[in-house]
Every structure is written in C-alpha cells, then in structure tokens.
Amino acid sequence: MSDQSSMHAYLNWTKQRIDEMDAILASLEAKASQVKVDSKAGADRIVADLRKRRDEFEASAKAQAKAGQAAVRENTAKLESQWRRFETEVNTYFETVGKQAEQQKATFLQAAAAQAKAWRETAEAFHNEAGKAMTARRADIDAAVTRMKADAAEAEARLHELMQAGGESWAALSAALAESRQAFDRANQKAGDAMKGGSQTESKPST
Fold first, then answer.
1. Rounded to two decimals, what is the model's pTM?
2. Region Disordered: start and end of each range (predicted)?
C-alpha cells in the first residue's frame, strides 16, 4: 500500500512537469513569428532542444513507472535534473532571443494555467482514492485534499497578483512559478503520505 501511494505521488509529479513543459513549448511555438529575424535561428534551436528535453523526460518517467517502485526511488533525482535543465534552457531563451515582455507574459500565463490544472486534477484524484480507503485513513486523506485545495487557491492567487502588477522580469515570473511548483510538490507528497496504509479498499463484514 505504501508503494502504491508513493507511485500515485510520483505519477502526479511527472504529469505536472510534462504538462508545464507542454504549455511552455506551445507558447514559444505560437510566438515564433514574433521573434526578430536575426534571432530566429537561435530561437528555433532552443525550442527544438526544449522539445527534445521534454520528450526525454517523458520517456524516462514512463520507463521508471513501468520498472516499479524501486526504480522510481532510485531515479527520481535523474528526472529532477532533467527538469532543471529544461528550466535553465527556458531561462536562456528569454535572456537571449525572447526578451519581449508580451511573449514572456504569454508563456507565464500558460505555465500558470498548467499548474492550476495540475492542482485541480491531483486533488480530484486523491479525493477519489479517499473513497476507496479504509475508514481509519479516510479522514487523513480528506484533510490532505482539503489542504491541497487551499494551497492551490493560495498559489493561484499569488500568481494572479504578480501578473496584475505587471512589469515583472522573466526572472521574477520564473521564480514565482518555481515557488508555486514547490508548493504543489509538498502538497502532493503530503497527500501521498496520507494514503499510505489507507489505499486498501475497506472490506465488508461477512453475513
């Protein structure tokens, strides 16, 4: 049961990262025509590299999930490193060829939307699992889900306030996304921990 709950948290974590990668790539590709002509070759190269990194991350995540819990524990650090390289490459893009404030804002909004979606979907998934849990554990899972929803609302509000303020650099926008992402990771882990020992379906008394 412990392994199952840990796998839930792992799958939520990898899906959140992949969805955010997809949102960022979609934004960069949609704005490709706005990149200055003398910067286009560099922009195309970075976006192609980001696409490659995204695909490598997904392939690694799927391989580890299929290999089982032991592989997940051993190789999560590798995935974290892959994510950081993707994030660094995005920062490089905006520091060099994507300095337009409009493009940075659009990418921030899409990444923030992907994060909000991950919060909602993960909370819903844990809520559904709570219904299958032993009665003794159900309250703990429900409490973790309630906390997750509150944390999600708080994170979304902070990102919205930052965007409304305007004039923020990509470094500030990226830092805000990272803070929200870390809050998601903590909430996801806490909900996964609450599921430990509680993911077994409650047996009905014999008649």
1. 0.86
2. 184-207
CB 10 within 8 A of CB 42: no
State which residues form the domain around 133: 2-195
Widest CA span in the chain? 78
205, part of any domain:
no
Residue 20 near residue 111, CB atoms below 8 Å: yes
Task: For residue range 153-199, list pLDDT tens digits in order.
Answer: 999 999 988 888 777 899 999 999 999 999 999 999 988 888 775 44
Q: Which amino acid is at 84?
A: R
**Would you call 72 exposed, middle or buried from its count of C-beta atoms within 10 A (0-12, 13-18, 19+)?**
buried
**Phi, psi dihedrals of residue 188, rounded to the nearest 5°:** -65, -40
Q: Structural domain tally of the chain?
A: 1
Is 207 a domain residue? no
E strand or H helix that includes residue 199? none
Residue 203 lies in a domain: no
Residues 6+ apart with CB under 8 A from 125: 8, 12
Tokens at 112, concatenated: 């923030």
Return the CA Rg of the chain.
19
What is the number of other CB atoms lying within 10 angstroms of the CB of residue 161? 10
Report how far residue 45's alpha carbon sits from residue 55's, in angstroms, rounded to the nearest whole number: 16
- Please report whether residue 178 resides in a domain: yes
DSSP state at residue 38: G
